[in-house]
Amino acid sequence: MDYRLTEEQEKYVNICAELAEDFATRAEQHDRERSAPEENYEILRQKGFYGIAIPKEYGGLGIGFLGYTACIMQIAQGCAATANSFNMHANATGSILQHPKVPESVKQRVADLALREGKLMCTSVSEPTSSSLLASAYTPSLEARRVNGGHTLHGKKAFCSMVESSDYVYLYAHPEHDPNPQASIGFLVPINKGNVEGVTIHDVWDTHGMRATRSNTVEYDGVFVPDDLILHETDEFLNDFIVRGANWSFGGFAAVYLGIGLGILNFASDFLTNRVAKGYAQSQGYHPDIRRRIGDMASELEAAELQMKHAAWYCDTYGLSVDTFHHFIKAKNTIGQAVANTSRSATIACGAHSLMKNVPLERMIRDAATAPIMPPNVDAAADQAGLLAMGLNPAEALPPLRAAEKLTTPEVME
Q1: What rounded mean pLDDT belongs to the chain?
Q2: CA dihedral sign, ordered 294, 295, 301, 306
Q3: Are 238 and 411 in contact (CB under 8 A)?
Q4: How far apart are CA 247 and CA 38, in angstroms?
Q5: Residue 210: how many CB atoms within 10 A of its CB?
Q6: From its phi and psi, is residue 279 left (phi > 0), alpha (psi between -120 and 50) or beta?
Q7: How many domains are there within the chain?
Q8: Is 2 domain-assigned?
Q9: CA geometry: angle at 343 spanning 337 and 344, to 5°?
Q10: Residue 291's domain is classified under what CATH number?
């Protein structure tokens, strides 16, 4: 195992570290106004990062998933909302370009849209009734109806980050009248920042953290998608998108939250080594309770980072498989727990002075709040990791809740 980055990967990581410093200067304003960081997306385009998840043979950066995670972790330390939303562009392009059933001509068209035309894309999987605890809740209920020359879409998608800034949306819809709940069609939907007939964006995103991701609800009422923007069809959505595409379906998000955790640790370390209480000659960093908290945070986050690097390296080295999914699901669980613990310890260690609205830690802690919640949440991740660690078949596990009569319980994994 070798987690060292190549010179080329290091170059892009260093650029992202510089961008993070710039993004940080606007992060507080975008958070307060819950406004999209449009200028950050444009800078990322100018720097060539619309191709960060695209292999070199299609014209992209070709830095692999290990290179991607190292880059997005840097961006997250400057503006977590920018990292979390731009991850959706990487998710869309990366998922499509690695999928074995997407035709080569379609892959090249997607790459050209991003690289030559500078089109921003987002991924939209969640729906209003989705649950980060229940994988089967992610089977699409958005309906695709066959019409002459393509399909029309009917229904809603929720938590659609960056949708108002995007030119295209990568999503899955259920074919009309198909009795299999996992039957799905992948589409690249021209959305033109929401200015398309049949698309309504509901501004519901007024949240505790990640406010600038603008993860609003999108309603599709007959929007037309031509045949040439069909990506592929599947009869097993959960296996196809979540298990076989674990790096993009949740691995990228895990790296974002790990970056936030490292940002919190860096802030707390700097804050406490420079803060001196009245009547004392040493900084508060020398206090034994502070030393222990920083030590715990550093230890947990380093373990989480090594798990993330291992999962990314394994994916780049061996490709997509159930084993790869297992590595990512363990990393997701560890990161969720570590970031939650880091947020709590940093709050206690740094005290009330660090929680003012004009201090970055306050925003980072709010942004980190969803680290254990982001799908699959830590309970669901631990459940899947435990089943696979014991060599059990998740499809044979009893359903956690009684299914509605009209639905069949889908297999989570082969």
Answers
A1: 94
A2: positive
A3: yes
A4: 26
A5: 27
A6: left
A7: 3
A8: no
A9: 90
A10: 1.20.140.10
Q: pTM of whole model > 0.70?
A: yes
Kindly state whether residue 269 falls inside one of the protein's structural domains: yes
SS3 content of the chain, % helix, strand, coil (to 5): 55, 15, 30
Query: How many C-beta atoms lie closer than 10 Å to residue 304's C-beta?
Result: 25
**CATH code of the domain covering residue 128:** 2.40.110.10
Summary count for the chain: helices (H), strands (E)? 12, 8
| 156: containing domain | 122-236
Same domain, 99 and 35: yes
**pLDDT tens digits, residue range 291-313?**
999 999 999 999 999 999 999 99
Handedness of CA 175, 176, 178, 180 (dihedral sign): positive
Answer yes or no: is 406 within a domain. Answer: no
User: Closest Cα partner for 89 from 157, 36, 159, 163?
Assistant: 163
State residue 244 phi and psi, 5-degree precision. -75, -15
**130 and 268 belong to one structural domain:** no
Query: For residue 61, is pLDDT > 80?
Result: yes
Rounded Cα distance, 145 and 143, in Å: 6
Structure tokens belonging to residue 125 = 């999987």
- Inside any domain, residue 414: no
**Torsion over CA: 302, 308, 311, 315 (sign):** negative
Say yes or no: 366 and 287 in one domain. Answer: yes
